[in-house]
Amino acid sequence: MNIIFQGARLINPAQNLDMRGSVKVSETGIIDTIVMDTETIPPGAEDRVIDMNGKVVAAGLFDMHCHFREPGQEYKETLETGSRAAAAGGFTGVAVMPNTKPVIDSPLGAAFIKHNSRDLPVDIEIVAAMTEESKGEKLSPYGKLRSYGITSISDDGTAVQNSRMMRLVFEYAASFDLLVIQHCEDTSLTAGGVMNEGTYSALLGIKGIPEAAEIITLARDIHLIEYLQKHKLRPPISPPKYHVAHISTGGALNLVRQAKAKGMRITCEVTPHHFTLTEQDLYDAEDKGNYIMKPPLSSRENREAILEALTDGTIDAIACDHAPHSRHEKECPPDQAAYGIIGLETSVGLTLSELVHTGTISLYRAIELLSSNPRKIMGLPPLLFEPGCPANFTFIDPEETWTYTEDLVRSKSRNTPFLDRTMKGRAVGIYHKGVLHGLEKV
Q1: 3-state class of 120 per DSSP?
Q2: pTM, whole model, 2 decimals?
Q3: For 3-57+389-438, CATH number?
Q4: pLDDT tens per residue, range 86-123
Q5: Which of 261, 318, 346, 406 would disulfide-bridge 369, Cβ 3.0–4.6 Å?
Q6: What's the rounded mean pLDDT across residues 17-31?
Q7: Known catalytic residues?
Q8: How deeply is 423 buried, as exposed, middle or buried, from its count of CB atoms within 10 A (0-12, 13-18, 19+)?
């Protein structure tokens, strides 16, 4: 059946598009007709018409930093349950990190993910490991991975600590035009750390993680790239593309600003929990396990620096770092809790509540951070609102007030500090792969 989404606000930053319009999608999932302004699409006898009443039809959202735990830790999450959570949160695509068991460091591991994600409601892109088993000792086979369609590499969960090895990562990644995604952390400073080092860690008697750990690793990487760009890498090999995962400190953001000003190919992402919460929220919480993550929730000053960087364009993407854990891994003393929280289902709500409705950024900018920019960073083709193109939409009601309750959780895990939190703005459905999910209330 053809579907007409009538009277929507169409937002697609990849085309600089933000205006009222209507879209007709064929039963095969291809855009048939698109009209702008107040013009409507006359329905045929067999067409289904959905009156959007000004709600948003956005280019399908894409989260470039997720952990779906399969293979090896299916008790926390699977490709199927993670995809279910993504669709519920308004995402039509995600990138999964390689720190599974075994680590995705070869075409064989990538083939497993591709085979088992073919029939899922969302697209799954694979980020392969920088080094074998993410041990930081030997490079993964970049050429084979690239030939298999891999565009990004990361040892997420840790950073390559050895500078010589990191240099090799940059040189070989540049040769194969791979995006290097770095979890910036000097583990010699963070070993045994639980939360941000400062007044609140001292009050709780919990070992702290100094913010310098993020800044030092990022500074090293920037200097290595600058050195290689100046002395070693020559056309046709371009300098490496470098992306900072879940950036959390003002010092690191300043380094990114400086690198961008020099013309370096550097981007960064921020998580909703880092622009929403601070270390004080962990201090005040009873269930502290759900406030334990890496990088840790930081100071109010660093949160303000993140908000400024979202406003001035330093931050390129919002990614939730969806990290499912079972109850026993979180309902325990803080120094025994696993790092990370789930986030796909609350990402849009927190972005609109904390950033759009506060006037920090526009809704258009939010869609750019959640959709077109992540795809561009990862080298994926842009989504286009044009006849003949696949329909890949996220539907958003910016005004809906809702509460994230446990019955709404579609992930296999429940580790989130945002249960029972009320938000304004919600993803109400997606259309992808020729299938409509959601829009029950429209």
Answers
A1: coil
A2: 0.97
A3: 2.30.40.10
A4: 999 999 999 999 999 999 999 999 999 999 999 999 99
A5: 318
A6: 97
A7: 321
A8: buried
